Amino acid sequence: MTGEITLLVPPTAQRGRGAHAARPAASAFRAAGLSVTTVTGTDPADTLRRARAAVAAGTRALIAVGGDGTVSLALQAVAGTATPLGVVAVGTGNDFARTLGLPVRDPAAAGRLAADAFARDGGSPVDLGRAGGTWFGTVLATGFDSRVNERGNRMRWPRGRARYDLAMLAELAAFRPVPYRLTLDDGAEREIEATLVAVGNGSSYGGGMRVCAGARTDDGLLDVTVVGRCSRTTLLTVFPRVYRGTHLGHPAVTVHRAARVTLAAPGLTGWADGERLGPLPLTAVCVPGAVRVLGARSTREAHSKDG
Prior knowledge:
Region (Disordered): 1-22
Pfam family, one: YegS_C
Strand content: 25-35%
Order of helices and strands: EHEHEHEHHEEEHHEEEHEEEEEH
Helix content: 25-40%
GO cellular component, one term: plasma membrane
Structural class: alpha+beta
Low-confidence stretches: none
Number of domains: 2
CATH architecture of the largest domain: Sandwich
Number of strands: 15
GO molecular function: ATP binding; ATP-dependent diacylglycerol kinase activity
Radius of gyration: 19 Å
Cofactor: Mg(2+)
CATH topology of the largest domain: Tumour Suppressor Smad4
Distance between the termini: 44 Å
């Protein structure tokens, strides 16, 4: 049987920030009179197995300590259950935490917020996306951005946003628009040529790139950002604007909203929450209120704070 609260720390974080961040988070829950158990595994699959076992055994909350990869593991364990999720964001990107207005790289504050929310209301309902049997909280990337993501995840240096900037420049050398088949709620199949199609439950990926800047996690819909056929020069102009979300006003960019999206394109792989889903075609659906998140603010409030 697990303790009342379970901290999920991935194996790669045990000797780094994750292990250090777990201590103040645990202290915050213990100060609130709750017992704490730490769960990790030998690899991501084992860690997920242990997280699911903790949920099945009745833990009262699962707290993900790490980055978006750790959050992704936690979502697979708690989505669709009554177990709330807490997030102590100390990773590279932390996009799920940013989307929900949670503290980033401040484990003591994140722990206190989660403990207070657990005692107060048990967390706020948050929508999730689901594609290929995998839950995701932020963005499903396909096209140029998924290729950048794939390259960036292979890189060990530099850290943070600069890694994706360098990966973007490298991918430009082989850049070509891709023929997509896009199907939304109306069932009509749209054939388009696009640089990328991003499906957002949340607003950002890659450490703050707000590709789906208008996405909300409480509206039951996914935002589908389509960057159409454009030249390398145009892409170099548009892509940096993703960090502020101002790319949405460019003529090459269109946005759709739908509860269900099917994407098909040759030779492309989908990535969600920074994790590889597999080759297209993929169908993504929005599941309203699929998880309760401790301390989460509405997306509108989070966006207002971000300015």
